[in-house]
Amino acid sequence: MITSTIEIAGLEGRRVSLTPQQLDDLAARIDGPLLRPGDEGWNDAVLVWNGMAARIPALVAQPTSAGGVAAAVAFAAAHRLLLGVKGGGHNIGGTAIAEQGLVLDMSRMREVAVDPEARLAHVGPGCRLADVDRATQAHGLATVLGFVSEVGVAGLTLGGGFGYLARRFGWAVDNLDEVEIVTADGRIRTASHRQEAELFWAVRGGGGNFGVVTRFTFRLHPVGPSVYGGLIAWPFERAAEILHAYRALTATAPRELSVWMILLRAPAAPFVPADWHGRRICAMSICYSGALDRVGGVLAPIRALRDPVVDLLREQSYVEMQSYLDATEPKGSHYYWKTGYAAELSDELLAATRKMFAECPIPDGELAFLHIGGAINDHPGDDGAVGNRDARFVWGAKALWHPDDPRADAFRRWIRDAWTRLRPYSTGGEYVNFQQAEDGPARTVEAYGKNYERLQRVKAELDPQNLFRVNRNIHQAR
Ligand SMILES: Cc1cc2nc3c(=O)[nH]c(=O)nc-3n(C[C@H](O)[C@H](O)[C@H](O)COP(=O)(O)OP(=O)(O)OC[C@H]3O[C@@H](n4cnc5c(N)ncnc54)[C@H](O)[C@@H]3O)c2cc1C
């Protein structure tokens, strides 16, 4: 029970005082705990993956039902409170947390119900990717999700979502069948192609701008349970050869094969020979989810590269594949990324990438290409707000460092330089889920391209007060 009045951030920079009576009223209606700083569970509730983007709210509500979420949204709207919504807390810009505001932490809504006959999974908004992969794989099924298992399903999906299966089945939102969502008026709605179709269009890539999703329903596909893949790497001295081989491979690879190319320094891990620790390498992270008796032929171009310094390719479960890179992404470090999309890997882009990485001063710095071309390109550009249907690769410069590292400014500068140098080879679009806190509204407009104006219209209709603004915000049309 809260016994004193609290000050909390409101919309338009106002401060709002909430009395103990009002807070009791909220606590009684959210169907779960209401936390203040210092309460048990507070630190976990406000923790986000990127320490550089950390913020502190004044209150955290942890609802356990759509009704509880609706009550919290109605309360925030009535008192004009700054409202954040936390899924997995992995957004690089830290957009889960409203600074000094109210946060809806969905971590108590983590259930997954699989209907194997209908090939559907009903997924709670607090789920991490691993929750869904584990539950669906129990039936030999999967949907498109990303490749680090602690990431939240909600934020990933609402921004579009891709992973090793995107080449086969499209963006995560191409596999979304329905959502249950609480809109700014406090109503619980169901949106799909069959009802509230315009809201459903907007939710398929438009982020948390239109409401709080309380259930995602995904279509599932037979996958695994065994796939073939893992990590293989060669010396950076062979970068020209490896990058060109990567381009040739991705031009013809079957959609069951996803190969992501990463230039990095070899970690001091037991699976890396000691004399390679800290040295520059060209690595491929590979997932082949097709018939395993064909894997030899499919991977032949990779095997033909010979003499890797690390070769961890093997048959493994899809669930294992989806989490084998988890340890490379510890929570709370300082992360900084700049990314774009490319339609092709031109000679100039590959040469610029190689040169940039040879000069990279960051011990944990990377340049990467993630091959996503395939099913996402089969749909028209306005099939869902996500757009970017001309993208075949995601490229990115990314790094992490210790919060106290005095070289942080130089590191950030290098990432920005890399982005500036690689951007001329980009489609001009961007992945909204990879944008930083510092990236301004113009970058959000770029991320959505031709779909932005339609998003503005849906936003103006469903959230005229811009209650849902702690996100990559869609500014309303005047
Ligand atoms: C290590 C790492 C690996 C990644 N790998 C991939 C990848 O393979 N593929 C890919 O596509 N992306 C990937 N991403 C990017 C990822 O999609 C975004 O970081 C995404 O925002 C994470 O979602 P979250 O729920 O964890 O984030 P949060 O920070 O909790 O939320 C992100 C945004 O979504 C909003 N939101 C959250 N839940 C809801 C809800 N229920 N209703 C409405 N709005 C909500 C929040 O308000 C916030 O604005 C990766 C990120 C990291 C850090």
Attribute tags:
globular, binds flavin-adenine dinucleotide, eight-stranded antiparallel beta sheet
Q: Can you describe this structure?
A:
The chain is of the alpha+beta class. 27% of the residues lie in helices and 23% in strands. It has 15 helices and 21 strands. The strands form 5 sheets. Strands 14, 15, 16, 17, 18, 19, 20 and 21 form an 8-stranded antiparallel β-sheet that branches. Strands 7-8-12-10-11 form a 5-stranded antiparallel β-sheet. It has a 4-stranded mixed β-sheet with strand order 3-4-6-5. The chain starts with 5 loop residues before the first strand and ends in a 16-residue tail after the last helix. Bound molecules: flavin-adenine dinucleotide.
* Computed CA radius of gyration, to the nearest angstrom: 22 Å
Distance between the termini: 43 Å
**Quantity of strands, as a count:** 21
Helix content: 25-40%
List segments where confidence is low: pLDDT < 50 over at least 5 consecutive residues.
Answer: none
* Oligomerization: single chain
Tally of helical segments: 15
**What is the global morphology?**
globular
> Ligands in the structure?
flavin-adenine dinucleotide
Tell me the major beta sheet. Answer: 8 strands, antiparallel
Structural class from helices and strands? Answer: alpha+beta
